[in-house]
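note to self: dont lose this again. the chain is below, predicted strucutre after it. 333 aa total, dont forget to put it in the shared folder this time
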Amino acid sequence: MEGSDRVPEWLNYHHLRYFHAVAQEGSVRGASERLRTSQPSICAQVKQLEVALGEKLYRRSGRSIALTDFGRVIYGYAEEIFALGRELLTTAKRAPSSRAVSLQVGVVDSFPKLLSLEILRPAFSHAPRIQITCREGKLEDLIGQLGAHRLDALFADEPPPAGSHVKTFTHSIGSCGVTFCAAPRLAKTLSGRFPKNLDGAPMLLPTQNTALRRDLEKWFRSTGITPEVVGEFEDAALAKIVATDGIGVTVVPTRVIAEAIERYGFVPVGQTRECEIHLYVITAERRIEHPAVAMLAGEAKRTSEASRRETEVAEKKPAARSRTRARGSRKNV
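---
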């Protein structure tokens, strides 16, 4: 028949099961006893598999049967296929509440890692369990994966470009100001009040193509600050590691400053809300449909709002104390 020498586009897994049993038992007889099937039936099934694949799978070795080189390759695939089958059955037998929810999430490489951890943290203690696969890359590449449905959502610090070829929807989950941090020995060398203490200071900044870098440059110009840029980084985590050696001042989201101080031993040298890191969840649908993404986005938004309220209260307290001292001074006059 025309085309009979070609490998079919589908595989008869029943034939593969018989082949796998013969390979494990080392003989047709052993496979026959195990599967409770006649030896001629097993031989016929394995022969059909050999015809479908176009090569011999076994060769005689004394009284037993040995796999050919090709047979060993097919046996490796069979092992993986039937292991996945057993895993599938085990998962299906579990109670629905105990099954892990799968979440494929992308994180733009410029997105601060401590913020990524803060956003993802609720997933690791969630019930039912959420099995997370996290992929990092450029915004354009991750949007392509989102459009191909290889990602459920992605976290970014800026919306997709207007001319993106993939239709996406951007959901804001908050924003926060930035804190300039340095290793203790570098912090001691920075003189003057903030932000003048940054003028001429060695600085480790995000690369030019990021939203935060553009905001920082604008803020530097407005405050008359000209730092010495000694390093530019796409990976914010690497910038922090370099900063621990006292090489330069780095920028940390104020929302996670306590954790940055604990992890890296930084000393804050000033903070501003005029430069903000914006947090977005980007999805392929108008509403966030994936339950894990919706949960993480909701938690991140609540955390952002609570952090902003705490910052506003902290900023008001010094002003209130200043007014109280001023009134006290007038009374003493």
